[in-house]
Sequence to fold (1908 residues):
Amino acid sequence: MADTTTLTKKDFKSDQEVRWCPGCGDYAILNAVQSVCARLGIARKDTVFVSGIGCSSRFPYYMSTYGFHTIHGRAPAIATGIKTANPDLSVWIATGDGDGLSIGGNHLAHILRRNLDVTILLFNNQVYGLTKGQYSPTSPTGQRTKTSPMGSIDRPFNPIGFALGCNATFVARTYDTNIKHMERTFEAAARHKGASFVEIYQNCVIFNDGCFDDVVDKGVRDDRLLDLVPGEPMVYGAGRDKGIKVEGFETIVSGAEDASVWDAAAASSAPAFTMSMMDENPGHPNPIGVFRAVSAPTYEEVSASQVAEAIEADGAGTIRDLVYAGETWEVA
Amino acid sequence: MADTTTLTKKDFKSDQEVRWCPGCGDYAILNAVQSVCARLGIARKDTVFVSGIGCSSRFPYYMSTYGFHTIHGRAPAIATGIKTANPDLSVWIATGDGDGLSIGGNHLAHILRRNLDVTILLFNNQVYGLTKGQYSPTSPTGQRTKTSPMGSIDRPFNPIGFALGCNATFVARTYDTNIKHMERTFEAAARHKGASFVEIYQNCVIFNDGCFDDVVDKGVRDDRLLDLVPGEPMVYGAGRDKGIKVEGFETIVSGAEDASVWDAAAASSAPAFTMSMMDENPGHPNPIGVFRAVSAPTYEEVSASQVAEAIEADGAGTIRDLVYAGETWEVA
Amino acid sequence: MTTTTEPGSDLPLQKQERVVIRFAGDSGDGMQITGNQFTSTSAAVGNDLATLPDFPAEIRAPAGTRPGVSGFQLCFSSIDIHTPGDNPDVLVAMNPAALAVNIGDLKTGGVVIANTGNFTEKDLKKARVEVNPLEDDSLEGYRVIKVDINKRVAEALDGSSLSTKEVQRCKNFYTLGLMYWLYSRPLEPTEEWLRKKFAKRAELAEANITAMRAGFAAGDIHEMFQGRFEVPAAELTAGTYRKIMGNQALALGLISGAELAGLKAFLGSYPITPASSILETMASFKRHGVVTFQAEDEIAAICAAIGASFTGSLGMTTTSGPGIALKSEAMGLGVCVELPLVIVNVQRGGPSTGLPTKTEQADLLQAVFGRNGEAPIPVLAVASPSDGFDCAIEACRIAVEYMTPVILLSDGYIANGAEPWRLPDVDALPSFEARFEAPRGEGAAKYMPYSRGQRDERPWAVPGTEGAEHRVGGLEKEHLSGEISYDAENHEFMVLKRQEKVMGIRASIPTPTVRGPQGGDLLILGWGSTYGTIIDAADRCARAGTQVSTLHMRHLWPLPDGLDELFGRFKAILIPEINLGQLARILRGEYPHHNFISFPKVQGRPFLSTEIVEKVSDILER
Amino acid sequence: MTTTTEPGSDLPLQKQERVVIRFAGDSGDGMQITGNQFTSTSAAVGNDLATLPDFPAEIRAPAGTRPGVSGFQLCFSSIDIHTPGDNPDVLVAMNPAALAVNIGDLKTGGVVIANTGNFTEKDLKKARVEVNPLEDDSLEGYRVIKVDINKRVAEALDGSSLSTKEVQRCKNFYTLGLMYWLYSRPLEPTEEWLRKKFAKRAELAEANITAMRAGFAAGDIHEMFQGRFEVPAAELTAGTYRKIMGNQALALGLISGAELAGLKAFLGSYPITPASSILETMASFKRHGVVTFQAEDEIAAICAAIGASFTGSLGMTTTSGPGIALKSEAMGLGVCVELPLVIVNVQRGGPSTGLPTKTEQADLLQAVFGRNGEAPIPVLAVASPSDGFDCAIEACRIAVEYMTPVILLSDGYIANGAEPWRLPDVDALPSFEARFEAPRGEGAAKYMPYSRGQRDERPWAVPGTEGAEHRVGGLEKEHLSGEISYDAENHEFMVLKRQEKVMGIRASIPTPTVRGPQGGDLLILGWGSTYGTIIDAADRCARAGTQVSTLHMRHLWPLPDGLDELFGRFKAILIPEINLGQLARILRGEYPHHNFISFPKVQGRPFLSTEIVEKVSDILER
Ligand SMILES: Cc1ncc(C[n+]2csc(CCOP(=O)(O)OP(=O)(O)O)c2C)c(N)n1
Ligand SMILES: Cc1ncc(C[n+]2csc(CCOP(=O)(O)OP(=O)(O)O)c2C)c(N)n1
Ligand code: SF4
Ligand code: SF4
Ligand SMILES: [Mg+2]
Ligand SMILES: [Mg+2]
Fold:
């Protein structure tokens, strides 16, 4: 599957004019993905980008790989067919908070629990961009939009918690203004064997400008973001002086020296769940990085192995033995 | 809303012949619900049972209340309309593992996150009963059914984990052969203000007989089930001699005396999540009871209050001021 | 085949051309097995046959109640037949509920075999029967044979090691034995089957065999019949035969269709009555390389199939009406991306959840028109259980040759019905191998995903193909390049191109042939499962001296060429349909100047040939 | 209204009956605001008018590119008009992309006003224009007015406190001022509007006003025009008017419809272009007691609406084609449970995602036939922006009076188009108050949910009503009791009853009236948004000496009574549709013996009246 020629980021740029609004966070995400694709060394011909509908779902057009811009919310379902039918392909899904968590929530849930080996990028801008600014399932309660003039009355999903609740084997978060972190996260996700879910905090300059500024803004982010690095202590802060210490189910903001070491591979996803809700505690940072990375058999592998096993046991079937089977009788 | 006359269980029995297979776990669940309805004292006229499609979804026909047997998977969506349009009604949803977690997973997720004040009973028999025995999203990997002759290749959902991942405010589990426990659980769920989710281990005598026997069978259940009672120590065992002790994210099987006290109202749902996965650890019991019970504003309340607020602010609108608004001009 | 010693051979043996039996009992009574065994044996002795099981409504109702009744009707004959028959000659009723539910259909003068052992007060009450019908005169006009089968089987298995419950479970084989005697059938095929089925519990096999033999040899009962019957072998076309059910034939056809195209079959499906068994059957054929995916819902099922087709598999999806409704958005995507896709709709009673276990043909207009925008999809329909095999292959052919979704309609009546299937010459099956774009090197011309071949089909390049990387999707495509295009003229061009492509399928389908006179007063036109009934009705008319012609339409969209001329040869065209006249509506829209007479029946069950015969004489007398 | 001092009043003032202007610029240039202001002012001076915005394709493309072009066309007149006009008389092009995209539509001899400030090399490149069209002869045949608006506005706002960027944002008001001058319109209404809009940033209001006044007073530019125009007030029927957009009218109508029925309006919806603004508008009317629920998808949206109707609200759902596809299963449920429900489909270009921002009428067959089983639903369609109000009320009336889902079709052209709306006499609006079953005491007769009223509607008992507790669902219902029934005859009865009920709506709808001669050679028949164009075309024919009649159909299913007789009076019936002939197909199916000529156009945009005029002369000359 891997191609020996050395691929560059440019190889993954398509000839299509990119049509997001100037300043949209999607540009940076595209860039990062193109870099990671080059680094993975998987040929363009063996790579497929699948998306639903939304600004973010225009993604496949900008990749010089195979691509499928499907219908709203259904990218995981189409990708399931693609990956199961041809497990050799490297399959990516680009989706939005509306596409992936509103209309497409069920397909997302099921692809995660089935653990297909795909990489899912959820562009979370807490708004419906393409349809011009309605609230989404990740919009904070109270957000005023065209359809919530008195403020949204929905309690939002936490995409990380949702993915964990679906038993996902790889769950991570990154944000659009940190190319390095995105690249690192995307690469880990792509290399993970199984369904990888990555939430990306993405700015929509038009309909929800600055929605993540309180945590990702250059001025505050060192103190407001905690990068979960498997096997590393949970340290953050401009001076890397702060840490998170786990006690029971509680997290405590501590000095760097007392920080607990982050284990993304724990058998239970409870620690990841705790982390995903950490920022609801006053004074706690907002976690990014890898929440969970465990291994489990992939759907497409087991599917293929059952077919192989059946063939091995009874021989490959032909139309003749399909038709001339069961109780037959002759009429002369 | 509450009715002053004393209601009895019989009042909630409809005149319809119950048509489940003899021995089906659904009968006991029906019984328990009828008892609880009587105990709640809410008039039949103010109670609505909503269901999707499946054996379990026949439920509304057997209740003498208002009822809606909708289409496959959509009960939460219909119930959302019912409850939002008339917050005074007591609304129940009866659904199956297929209806609620396969085709209807997304609606279930969204009603939970929105926190409508409804009571959801998920009859989990780990199989599609009505369509005669295909595997479901809760069937254990490897289960052989009509559609999985070599064993199911899906990793199952854990319904409790799923509900927690959707940020549900009340999450519980019970089982069909323990009327008392069912009644206690249903009553707590019904009295909870907000979306209550109850998974019920339900035996399907025809297509999945004994699916929960390893934990609910009379002979083993005392030692295999741990009943989570908010505020009580986590003690179990025929002699109530065993306990569960929580250390960090780990649970340890201990003596009764060392058992931790169960807190279903913790701000974070991580403890509930830990419990929901506990039985994956060797030697651990299978948890039932109340995993989570926290309070949050309900969708229908806030929806109604925005309407009330708008009316208070600007006066109740009439057709005239709807039409004769904006910039108008006269033509003589 | 050795012949069994014949008890009661002193009784008169009467030849019959065609017999219809209905077995009816409680869901737990094993009536489906009984019926199927009788069918297999009749097949083995060379009868033509057709069967129709009648399952109880979705949920297993309590034992002994009317909703719990399970029935199985079969027609076996020495002549060519096409339906399981209008009214049974013989009704086997294992309990009062079975009798109550089925007696109305029995032919006047027909035989009732009633298991008196199950006609106790309690049984009557469960069946909501006030007075024991075996004891008042409500069965006047029928010949009633009363047998306490419970007792008989207990006697026959007296001393067996089985529990009482297990002994009673052999009742259906006692009954079967009795019927085998009545119709002079051999026991051996069933004995063989039993021994195989209970290979691991020989005592069960033997008990059932003993029970069956007891029924076969019950001289005192035989007396009551005053004679037994023989239905000689039918003159069937020479060949190898097997009994096949509709859904099974579809499954075999879909797998074969993919293989004929040189593609891997990928089925994305979600269980739904009465389509589920296609998925179940295909899931059991893994050694044919079939990949089945049980999806979370119908939308995911079709989407996965589209995804699989994108990679070069032949994507398929199977469902029933409500599932089709859910798939309609994705079908539009299929139209737009122009990938092969076979969509099977096993129709059931509607609207909405409707009558899930009953049959109907009311999804035709949905199939042809039920999508947003101009989204043409070819539609064809299965005529009979075995026809499912050919139709499935034909659906695959169209999908692959024209790069298009195809809808294949069947219905509940066909799905569960069975008939003998003369097995095809495998080497003579049509071949329509799919062609993929070859990899292209650096300098090669750019791959144009929306260029067109001789059938207006677009070229298929699958992931893994170097140099043909491209993007597809549901937005309007630019002709040739396939890039997104909002251009007005291009849109019109593409709308017309998709329409032309689908209409162009006409070039590959034959004008259906008229059976009977090629012109005249009346043509009976049918589609789908009315096929057999219409032929039976026409044959009955012919026997009664009235020649009427019939025409069966396999292809419903596009309509084949030549129909206008053909219709012009008839004064009137009668269209019986299990809906409110959907094909009639389509035909009127296309060929406004013919005299179409719509003949609707929407009762969740097939037409009786009598109904059509009567309608024909009504029309011709006018 | 005070009149502004008139600069350039020395130039000749020419009267015009009807002017079409198109404003075109980059998405960021504020062309929609400019267009809307010109429209409001024209309305205020008493013109008749019609507008059509042309939004860029879904995503904001990079500034200056062709996909980023945003346009707004308006037609204002002193005569009765019905469309925004075929070809603009004046094109305002703020950049080369806007020019390139729109020039093809400009009337021969028309005026181009080009902002030369945005025709730099860089701008040309972004627009993929090779040579500056202002500098070669590609604009021959047009009068080209070149103005460096960038520079002009900078000059006008020299010394302002605003940033350069903010100053440049006033360009559109400079342009608007220029157009106001050209067509002799007052500035006051816009000044007022600006002051209100920027109440919190007065400096912005003033800057824009200054810019506008500068454009209005730019004498040197005025010279280039060699004259200015006046379009006197139209003779409109007396009354109070307001400008209304299609989706807005629908929202107001839906709210009013519920109120007229005495019900709470409940809208379950999921955003989708071009329907979203109905949800947005209704969400802003909470003080009318409207409850809006933004669902997780279209299925949940319609299901919630059905749930709300179950409780006694008037459930509604709004969407576009792909959403309708998703809702089709639930629509079947609506048919089965017979609850009122209004389903709005604002059609867009299809199939699949298609052309989301373009218009089409290709969902008609889906509306009428796109469900499994026999699931009849009445269908009606909106003719023009203001007609949305009446149609929405009519849809509510049918839903409530007949206890049925109703589909109301609109399209992208109507959704975003605007016209003056003569406000109705609120007291004269139809009333169709819903009746709920009263509570019943112990001894009262049992509530029969599937008994029937005079219109075959079933009685509506809502939760909270003592003694009327009952269950509904999607399985077939027993007549009267509403219990589940698998009975064959009952099923047929219910299928026919549902059909009759919907067909019975005919009794409450008028035969549409023919405009023009009541019989003759040709009738132009239209539905939905072709309304205005057909009338314009007929009027043009009339002016040219050919009388053709027109007929507009609001009710599409069931078809109103009297059509057969009406059609019989014409030799031919021309049916222009923005699809491949869907209404023509339906009419042929119902009235096979008339001469329907289908006239399809599927370019994602409305017909031009010219096209219809030409088609008419084609037909009449034959
Ligand atoms: C079936 C269907 N319903 C609705 C839409 C309209 N629609 C397109 S994109 C979108 C939401 C996009 O939001 P998100 O996924 O967050 O993507 P973003 O544009 O914010 O990147 C909606 C509602 C559609 N295209 N199809
Ligand atoms: C749209 C649609 N798809 C499929 C079905 C068929 N169907 C009915 S019930 C069911 C699954 C039932 O499983 P579950 O919810 O677990 O209920 P159970 O019967 O086990 O109680 C399915 C697939 C349907 N009725 N409608
Ligand atoms: S609308 Fe928002 S999300 Fe969409 S392209 Fe523009 S900035 Fe990006
Ligand atoms: S099939 Fe199973 S779940 Fe359904 S009624 Fe029977 S025992 Fe209960
Ligand atoms: Mg978004
Ligand atoms: Mg189940």
In short: Residues 227-296 of chain A form one domain. Residues A 54, 96-98, 125, 127-129, 136 surround magnesium ion (ligand 5) (CB under 6 Å). Chain A has a mean pLDDT of 95.
